[in-house]
């Protein structure tokens, strides 16, 4: 096997504009791609400098159900500060809580996709 990385992760959304605003304005991701592919919109965002991008897959782009994605873990230098920023933006946050591998919290995007934040424990 010669796999080097994941190219993209699909996040199924009902409204691509609403999702784009959330991922860029609230989470601070950067827009990587926004183009038409026939009648569909190919829309991708990513944390600054990240190799893997997130495709905000709208209606008609495969057999995806908005809000069905779970368990995507974003690493952050300060989970507590990021949770406070999410709460200030009106996002319901579960945690943060301590785990053997670090401090983590969970939240959902506007479509209900389950996302997590993790500040990794040093040396784990």
Looking at how many chains there are and whether they match, the oligomeric state comes to single chain
Nearest-angstrom radius of gyration?
15 Å
Order of helices and strands: EHEEEEHEEE
Which bin fits the share of residues in helices? 10-25%
Distance between the termini: 27 Å
Task: Give start-end ranges of low-pLDDT stretches.
Answer: none
Count of DSSP-assigned helices: 2
The largest pleated sheet is described as:
4 strands, mixed
Mean pLDDT: 95
Structural class by helix and strand composition: alpha/beta
Please list the strands of the largest sheet in the order they lie side by side: 1-4-3-2
Q: Rough shape?
A: globular
The number of E-state strands comes to 8
Question: Approximately what portion of the residues adopt beta-strand conformation?
Answer: 35-45%
Write up this protein.
- The protein is of the alpha/beta class and 124 residues long.
- It has helices at residues 16-26, 79-88; strands spanning 8-12, 30-37, 40-46, 53-57, 72-75, 93-99, 102-108, 114-120.
- The strands form two sheets. It has a four-stranded mixed sheet with strand order 1-4-3-2, with helices on one face.
- β2 (30-37) and β3 (40-46) form a beta hairpin.
- The longest helix is centred in the first third of the chain and has 11 residues, at 16-26.
- The chain is globular and about 45 Å long.
- The mean pLDDT is 95.
């Amino acid at each position: 096997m010669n796999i080097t990385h994941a190219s993209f992760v699909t996040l199924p959304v009902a409204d691509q504009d609403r999702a784009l605003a959330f991922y860029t304005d609230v989470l601070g991701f950067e827009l990587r791609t926004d183009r038409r592919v026939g009648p569909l919109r190919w829309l991708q965002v990513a944390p600054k400098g990240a190799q893997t991008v997130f495709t905000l897959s709208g209606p008609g782009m495969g057999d995806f159900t908005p809000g069905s994605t779970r368990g995507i873990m974003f690493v952050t230098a300060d989970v507590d500060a990021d949770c406070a920023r999410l709460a200030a933006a009106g996002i319901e946050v579960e945690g943060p809580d301590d785990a053997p591998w670090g401090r983590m919290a969970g939240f959902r995007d506007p479509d209900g996709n389950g996302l997590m934040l993790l500040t990794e424990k040093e040396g784990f």
